[in-house]
Amino acid sequence: MLKFYYSGAPNPMKVALMLEESGLAYEPIPIDTRKGDQHKPEYLAINPNAKVPAIVDGDATVFDSNAILLYLGEKTGQFLPANTPKARGELLSWLMFVASGVGPFTGQSVHFRQYAPEKIPYALNRYMYEAQRHFAILDARLATRRYMLGETYSIVDMAVWGWARLVPTALGEAAWAKFPNLKRLIDEISARPAAQRATALRDKHKFKTEMDEEARRAMFRHLTETVA
Ligand SMILES: N[C@@H](CCC(=O)N[C@@H](CS)C(=O)NCC(=O)O)C(=O)O
Questions:
Q1: Would the CB of 33 count as within 6 Å of ligand 1?
Q2: Element (H, E) at 2
């Protein structure tokens, strides 16, 4: 059975949503990143990047959430647009936009706001500005179409859902007012039974919640090694 290495964080949750939407049978395997499970040799053999999510499907090992979404879309033939150069170009553009822009900038925005030992105004402003700019691009796209690729729900919407659920955490409670179209999509997806099953996965395992010394050492390894 397909093995899904996960935690309740945004990138694994996109994949949980796709697994639930597609109806594939899978075994969820918790990786407690606050306890350092991501650095264990047996997990590094699956994902050398020491992050969640990853999947092992027979002899295929796939890591990086949007790569997994594409893999599962192609495997099941579900939640993909028409296989034309035009539609596939849009799919790849938006999937990579979420992977290389929305995710990293939102992640860094949360990091510098919540976890950095010093509050550095330059870093706070840069990452929050960029996170907002990326969400505004999604919002503008969704002003003229129901889903990211048009009228059909796809893996791009799932990728967006993983991160955009965190708009209030990343940008503050009032931020939804700036992105009404994006909020409409996130509310619609969150109400889907598959999304509810995906988020319930977090409760299947008692993940560590404290951001203590052990968690900081596991997740913020730069704190113990100065390279600049
Ligand atoms: N590009 C990767 C990023 C994965 C990633 O950053 N995962 C986070 C959770 S959302 C993680 O594993 N954090 C634990 C750590 O950094 O040690 C993807 O899209 O899967």
A1: yes
A2: strand 2-6
Nearest atom of ligand 1 to the alpha carbon of 103: 19
pTM: 0.97
Distance CA 98, CA 160 (A): 7
Write out the chain's pLDDT in tens, 228 residues.
Answer: 999 999 999 999 999 999 999 999 999 999 999 999 999 999 999 999 999 999 999 999 999 999 999 999 999 999 999 999 999 999 999 999 999 999 999 999 999 999 999 999 999 999 999 999 999 999 999 999 999 999 999 999 999 999 999 999 889 889 999 999 999 999 999 999 999 999 999 888 999 999 999 999 999 999 988 898
Q: Which of 52, 97, 156, 160 to mutate to test the pocket of ligand 1 (most atoms within 8 A of CB)?
A: 52
- Of 74, 76, 48, nearest to 63 (Cα)? 48
Q: 51 C-alpha to center of ligand 1: Å?
A: 4
Is the C-beta atom of 132 inside 6 A of ligand 1?
Answer: no
Residue 52 CB–ligand 1 contact under 6 Å: yes
What is the distance between the alpha carbons of residues 75 and 79, in angstroms, rounded to a whole number?
11
For a ligand 1 pocket test, name from 39, 44, 51 the mutation site with the most ligand atoms within 8 angstroms of its C-beta: 51
How far apart CA 13 and CA 51 sit, in angstroms, is 13
Please provide the distance, in angstroms rounded to a whole number, between the alpha carbons at the two ends of the chain: 44
